[in-house]
Amino acid sequence: PHTPDWWRTAVIYQVYVRSFADGDGDGTGDLAGVRARLPYLAELGVEALWFSPWYLSPMKDGGYDVTDYRAIDPAFGTLEDAEKLIAEAREAGIRAIVDIVPNHVSDQHPWFRAARSGGPERELFHFRPGRGPDGELPPNDWKSEFGGPAWSRLDDGEWYLHLFAPEQPDLNWAHPTVRKEHEDVLRFWFERGVAGVRIDSAALPAKDPELPDFVEGRDPHPYVDRDELHDIYRSWRTIADEYDGVFVGEVWLPDSERFARYLRPDELHTAFNFAFLSCPWDADRLRTAIDGTLAEHAPVGAPATWVLCNHDVTRTVTRYGRVDTGFDFATKAFGTPTDLALGTRRARAAALLSLALPGSVYLYQGEELGLPEAEIPLDRIQDPMHFRSQGTDPGRDGCRVPLPWVADAPHAGFGSRGEPWLPQPADWQAYAADVQSADPDSMLSLYREALRLRPVLGDGPLTWLPAPEGVLAFSRAPGGPVCVVNLAEAPAELPAHTALLLGSGPLDPRGRLPRDTAVWLRR
Ligand code: TEU
């Protein structure tokens, strides 16, 4: 059906293809694996799938280093597989969103290969001579997001800019060829039936042409949130509008007014809201984060998005299970042990909270199974962030481990004949989808129920209801259902004349809401 505003309220599931399901058994997840699991996704009740990059790539950054936007990486399948997947998903009532990475390409991209060997393609990137007597110093002091300088030097002495890994050279967005190419790529995927595009690192592509040193506090910033971007996204929007396509921007910006500038009727429909990722499990802080998010979206008429996790951050149950014990005099160390039972309770409550809020929700694969962050043996880590930090940062692989599907199968049913590309923890079977499917109290059952019941909550604005300290209570319709979350230590009395629709955990024997528990109630 033609539902132009589906994205205002949708639950969108992020597929990190490499780790979702291995259809051909080679150790890497693929499109055949996703196609085989479409019934699972339909039963879960998600309305769209966002696929992390599936294009031809040397995988130096999990596919965020693209060699060819019009080709699927052979490890994942073929363009025909992608077309089939998009069509089959659509038949199951699920839309597809692809991931476009405008800031950079792979150093194996034909443009950069030509640039490397001295061709005029250098203009498509940021090439500069170095500083110092022999040009042995980088052209400016910018730092890579992954650590170390944002510049690497070629054999001929010239330096090129890369805000991420050296294998991800930054494109020069002042060049018309760069703009034209991306507009063609957008059309290419919209023509193939995708409903939307996620824009990677959306606040970074435009650079000050002078490439000046970074000066703290100077506005405009030499490469973050520059005005030139708005012109680019306005021209993208005219293309999206031809296809009823929608954008979700990965716009990491601390300033909410600057953030909201991307959300306009002639720019991006939505952008990720990462407020929950840094918000502690505290009623006042959460309420402030929610109010702040809604306030920045309301004036521009854009729906808020809610994100509990993605492929770049620590898994939710681990994040919420970190108990900061402060300084421990016995071990003479600062401790942050993880209490997974606590983290799981909070993650369940956070799921009901975020799914009850106005707007759309992004659900990262494996969150519906309650997977914790995995510890990856040092010799198996692949994330460039780990290497660029000189090993001081474990990197992001712990949330990218292949999913467990079948408890009683090799590699928990991921599908690989040999070892999967990242090792699964020894207890991964316990999280397998088939076990959880049969267990009404599992995280998977909670998510399924929540997605099924979510429309019942109503689609009005959020109204906070009176609640004791440490308890959040709100409704989306006058006299309609209520969401209550208890973040206080003591059990909370539930509002009178209500009946349970869904709970993240059991009520106590006196019918009260225990700590770290959320409920949806009918009035
Ligand atoms: O991430 C953009 C980004 O800003 C990251 O540096 C982010 O701050 C970091 O991962 C947080 O831990 C996007 C993608 O989501 C990420 O996977 C890519 O590595 C990055 O762009 C480069 O394409």
From TrEMBL:
Q: Name one GO biological process term.
A: oligosaccharide catabolic process
Keywords of this entry:
Hydrolase
Q: Where is the Glycosyl hydrolase family 13 catalytic domain?
A: 14-396
Q: Which InterPro entries match?
A: GH, GH13_cat_dom, O16G_dom_2
Q: What name does this protein carry?
A: Alpha-glucosidase
For this protein, the record's Pfam families field holds: Alpha-amylase
Gene3D superfamilies xref list: Glycosidases, Oligo-1,6-glucosidase, Domain 2
- Going by the entry's taxonomy, the superkingdom of the source organism is recorded as Bacteria
> According to its UniProt record, which protein family does this protein belong to?
Belongs to the glycosyl hydrolase 13 family.
Q: Name one GO molecular function term.
A: alpha-amylase activity
